[in-house]
Please model this.
Amino acid sequence: MTVAVRVIPCLDVDAGRVVKGVRFEDLRDAGDPVELARRYNEAGADELTFLDVTASTADRSTTYDVVAQTAEEVFIPLTVGGGVRSVEDVDKLLRSGADKVSINTAAVARPEVIDEITRRFGSQVLTLSLDARRTDDPSVASGFEVTTHGGRQGTGIDAVAWCREAAERGVGEILLNSIDADGTQEGFDLEMIRAVRAVTTVPLIASGGAGSPEDFPPAIDAGADAVLAASIFHFGPVDMIARVKQAIREAGHPVR
Amino acid sequence: MAGVTGAARPTVAVLDYGSGNTHSAVRALQRAGADARLTADADDVMNADGLVVPGVGAFQSVMTALKDLGATRWIGRRVAGGRPVLGICVGHQILFDAGVEHGVRTEGMGEWPGVVEALPAPIVPHMGWNTVRPAEGSALFRGIEDERFYFVHSYGVLKWEFDQAHEKIAPPRVTWANHGGDFIAAVENGPLAATQFHPEKSGDAGMQLLANWLGTL
Model:
């Protein structure tokens, strides 16, 4: 009788198309985010995340279209992130059909935007997304540093302290992505998950490093409430969501 | 997935008072078989077969927005006239006596006794898919008693304080869920129904619940 561990596929969207590649053989159009969202919904996804990686602001309106079209037919929670900077951006995305919005670089640059957004729409609409990596920099106490620009730039900000501050400012959950683990398929950074779990009481989504269903249960044991991944779902067999849930269930955690 | 069958699709007004993502509620109701639309027009609200009161965010801001629109009176008039109303999430919470958030008490509509207070759980918001314990004889949960529904909230009604000792009045049916402690997940009370979770975001199970509600209109 507890809340289920959420399994969340993440779709990177560039100018209205899914990037990072998708390898489902029977999809008519593997680059169509709406079709992929429909597929993941049918496969048992608990929630979907769209990450807008569009470079130009002009193409960003296509993301609103993608969200709106998906919300027309997929009745599970939709989170949208990428390029979110202001209350106005959040308002537009919510009106397009997003249930939650994630904020990353803009909050690092100006933490007060978290207060502004959550005051207007409530904590539950805002996810703090952060890309963190291990560092030897002695000024970063936890040993985990916030990065920007997809992990290419360090900030010198302590990732664990940043999570604590963002939660105090009002974010409703935290999406913790390990830059070191991202793409390695060697498993989640469990130490990083434990370190963030120890300082916050908002739900924690672990991301980065999943290579097989067996990689997921340790992330839950380390304190994650939900797990997010892209490649393993895009490139794996169609029933990968079910396999991941099976592994989580067998480890003794509830799934839907 | 069951929708409403038969000649006429029931009309449903989804109350528009600037509350978050209402688009999904309209679309889900349409999918479940309703002729649904978003509206803040008094005639639309009064004439519809069903009224849905969505709501996200803070109890106080939702209550203020509803009052500014005159919608608390519309809801009251519909209920007094036996016309169905479904509250969702904060739209469920504001039907109780009051809400206490960050130490500030805000009066609710008082349709049911009880105070909306912080969930006594180690991890909040309560966010995700959880099980429920449906009330015996529930119409809303018929056929979906063992399904999970999508919740996202930090506050809830932890105690049911209704005086049921009136033989001539059927008692409300109360459905419970648990996150750190028991809280009320849904209430069915004559024309007035409410869910703490989001049926419009609860996949096939939520769609069935909406279809079940439409079936009562």
In short: The mean pLDDT of chain B is 93.
